[in-house]
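Work Package 3 (structural annotation) set out to generate three-dimensional models for the target panel prioritized at the project kickoff. During this period the team completed the workflow that converts sequence records into discrete structure tokens, so that structures can be stored uniformly alongside our sequence database. As a representative example, we reproduce one entry of 321 residues exactly as it appears in the project archive.
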Amino acid sequence: MSTTPHQRRALLSPLRLRRERRYPELPNGVPGEAGTPVRASSLWRDAWYRYIRNRAAVIAGVAFLALLAYCLVWPLVSPYDPYEVDFSQASESPSLAHPFGTDQFGRDLFTRTALGGRVSIGIGFAATLVILSIGVAYGAIAGFLGGFVDNTLMRILDALYGLPYLPFAIIVLAIFGGGNFWTMVVALSIASWFTTARIVRGQIITLKENDYVRAAHAVGARWLRVLGRHLLPNTLGVLVIAVFLELPGVILGEAFLSFIGLGISPPDASWGSMAQDGYRAYRTSPHIIIVPSVAIAYLILCANFIADGLRDALDPRTRET
């Protein structure tokens, strides 16, 4: 009995379906065969897919980018001069004209908060990069060389752990003088890289036992190439997380130092110095201290949620356990 072309296609469709399931099509539409290589997926692409499935981390990332955009853009388009003093508008409550109100000098707090965010976030990222640079170099050398060098460097690090963080920063500011962006960066980072060094050392000790490191040594690769080409790139995920874990601590440290009068000098402002100004008038104008305090809390929450999402995305085993 003869069959029509339509019936033959209907009979072949289950076979074609099984074949497509077994040998999926390649990206260009060519059907795959047994042994066809599957398109490689990178660590960062997989991490990105896992990150965007974390709703809290995505919301925190969007909120963080919105804060950065506000701090960068609004001072450029604001109708108010953030340094102009007008006592006729001093300590006004929030309104349509001044969404965050004005300070005791009549300056618009919506604009001042954006400028203060530039300084605070700039100090936070600059100090965090310095912390990572010192910590990565110290920990990588200790973990890679091992033996006597590792023991010596770690005992020095144990001794440095006895240095109190904020009192040591206050001493540095007293010696070099406060009120300067780079002085604040040095003061906040000079005694904060110890934990980063320990984390990197532990990662390097674990990674250097892998087969690809032994293979690199076997073909005669120098230790600097092995460290820079094979080991440090594989610690990048941990370092990205460390940036967002260190950032809240640095921001709080800057706010504390500015609050006690060792921060950015007027007329420039940071969120910490704005909180100090608000503390003097919190009984009559509480919004002056509430605005920078909420901004600091907002940034810290965003950074913590982003760090938590990055940790789950870059190392999904932590979520499984």
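The chain has one domain: 45-320.
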